[in-house]
Amino acid sequence: MKKIGLTTTVPIEVLIAAGYTPVDLNNIFVVSDNHLKYIDLAEKDGFPKSLCAWIKGLYGACIENGIEEIIGVMEGDCSNTKALIEVLQLKGIKVHPFSFPHSHSLEDIEREIKKLMAIFNVEEAEVEAVRKRLNEVRLLGKEIDELTYIQNKATGFENHLYQVSLSDFNGDIDGYEADLRKAIEEIKARKATDKKLRLGYIGVPPMTTDIYSFVENLNAHFVYNEVQREFAFPRGNEAKNIYEQYYDYTYPYNTDFRLLELKKQIKERKLDGIIHYTQAFCYRAVEDIVIKNNLDIPILNIEGDKLNTLDARTKLRLEAFLDMLLDLKEENR
């Protein structure tokens, strides 16, 4: 099947029904052994240094991996995506537009998804058949999530990895299903961990994935990965159709809608604190103000840039934050 690049999670059910293999450019970029080559390629082609590294990474991943066609999300994702799309079109890459409407009305979302169906010439019944198949596999991602926050057996990194990869199923639905089943079997056989602190990770998935092992060495465990979990559509099977499923997807809509799910998960997972990750030069960093004013839980905002490992300053801030959480937990015993 022909590959099509994604700049963020979109209704891939439509693309698969049309005979495409979706490829999440974010995943190509962040797991690369040399992620900086993608950033360097973008800067060589004129992207400014004072621009989010993710956008430059997406550009480099698209060009370097020979992606000839992409879905460009014009509304509901990074505000820099529009400029990225213009440059990719200049490079001869075919761009199909898609939007998550700011209105967040079911009617408008249905209209946008139907536009996408028309572009790729697929019928709703075909899309629903694919959705049913994908949601079967997504249930395995939900099981790994439960192995993390209920049984305390899966690590925060495993929770992150297996859910974030459901954005494109690693380009192989059946193969990824087998990988998930194997991982679940292995995780179930473990003993539960016994960390004192239960943490939530919110914000875009990190470039600095060593954050998971770092906090585990400080008697803490990430039991919630907000956006990664949304990429896995944990409530997808409850939706009547694809329109409801993407209506209930919190990532692209306003912060108030996102906060409703955050508050629910904080309570259900008994979180002690939250790490809010943002990228340098990204507008989403401003959302930290709104989030801290609406959530009654200690929150530490950390910022990533080009590095894919934590720097010394961020490590010190994390250590201090976790020390404070441990002291609070001891006081409240």
From TrEMBL:
Superkingdom field: Bacteria
Keywords from the named record: Coiled coil, Iron, Iron-sulfur, Metal-binding
Coiled-coil positions: 166-193
Cofactor: [4Fe-4S] cluster
InterPro entries named in the record: FldB/FldC_alpha/beta (IPR010327)
A Pfam cross-reference name: HGD-D
Record-stated family: Belongs to the FldB/FldC dehydratase alpha/beta subunit family.
Protein name: 2-hydroxyglutaryl-CoA dehydratase
Source organism (scientific name): Clostridium manihotivorum
Phylogenetic lineage: Bacteria, Bacillati, Bacillota, Clostridia, Eubacteriales
